[in-house]
Amino acid sequence: MISTADIRINKIAKSRVTDYDVNNVPFGKCFSDHMFVAEYADGKWQNATICPYGDVPLSYAMSALHYGQAIFEGMKAYKNDNGDVSLFRPLENYKRLNRSAVRMCMPEVPEELFMNGLLELLRLDAAWVPTGDTGSLYIRPFLIATDEAIGVKASETYKFIIITCPAGKYYSDPIKVIVETDYFRSVHGGVGFVKAAGNYGRSLYPTKLAQQKGYQQVIWTDSATHHFVEESGTMNLMFVIGDTLLTPALSDTILAGITRDSVIALAKHWGMKVEERKVSLKEVAEAYEKGELKEAFGCGTAATIAQIIGIGFEGKDFVLPPVEERKFSTKVDETLRLIRKGKMKDELGWMLKV
After folding, report:
1. I need a labelling partner for 38 at 20 to 30 A (CA). Which of 17, 108, 160, 217 fits?
2. pLDDT digits over 61-94, tens only?
3. Which residues pair with 236 in a beta bridge?
4. CATH class, range 175-340
């Protein structure tokens, strides 16, 4: 098993952090000094290294490029006023990565390798973690197949890599979404419940069409009937109808979001009624017509809470209440921010100090 002592560290000669204002950089465009890399070959994990961020030599014939054996995670580190860096529920990301690995016929990553590599990397690049109220260090662990061979079969070699980048808010403004009933994100028996790279590639064209119509994202519906909502863009989807928090139940077509789970946990902690079940477009439309659709929002690691102010459906737009009037989603957004920044007691034990 790979321990912290087994990780070879090759530090950058001179940090690049002073070249940037880490509290004010575009999401996903600026990367920190180092990355973590481990290799899988001969049936075991080996060669765990932290090295300067940069290109990794890979073959143009490698399996990930041709046959889609590529999975990833998204997580964040936060810095409090004392300069301490903490992670939000990192073991949930670790578990989900391995669920993805099993489904995509890839080797599972040992917990010690994942956590020791991640923690050592963050200790080395702590200066890259933003200090602003909405800032964080976005963390991208990913696993790719690296066999240099053409032929449809599971690879025998892999690389597990972690890169990081300082990040602000993913969506600076509330968004408008349109219900998608021609294309679909996932199907029963497919890979919609895992973070496989291809899930995101297939979403780009429908999203482009939505943006051409003036919407920022789509609401994905079930592939069989297009009658039930599933996700919005790359986020889980939630509604407040009356006094109830309503969200589609998890299935093999919906990603088990960690932010989703956290929002539900807080709602229950506060005594709010929560329903996880199938949610039909008809139900949402009727709630809107009756004035009972109080809030709609997406939730995920990148965005945390993305307020939805308009929903396009069957040729008309549902105009939702202003964000300032939304009691639940604004409270949960602020509560998560305060917990992550160490400004509110972590009653549910979510934060891990680096």
Report:
1. 17
2. 999 999 999 999 999 999 999 999 999 999 999 9
3. 231, 299
4. alpha beta
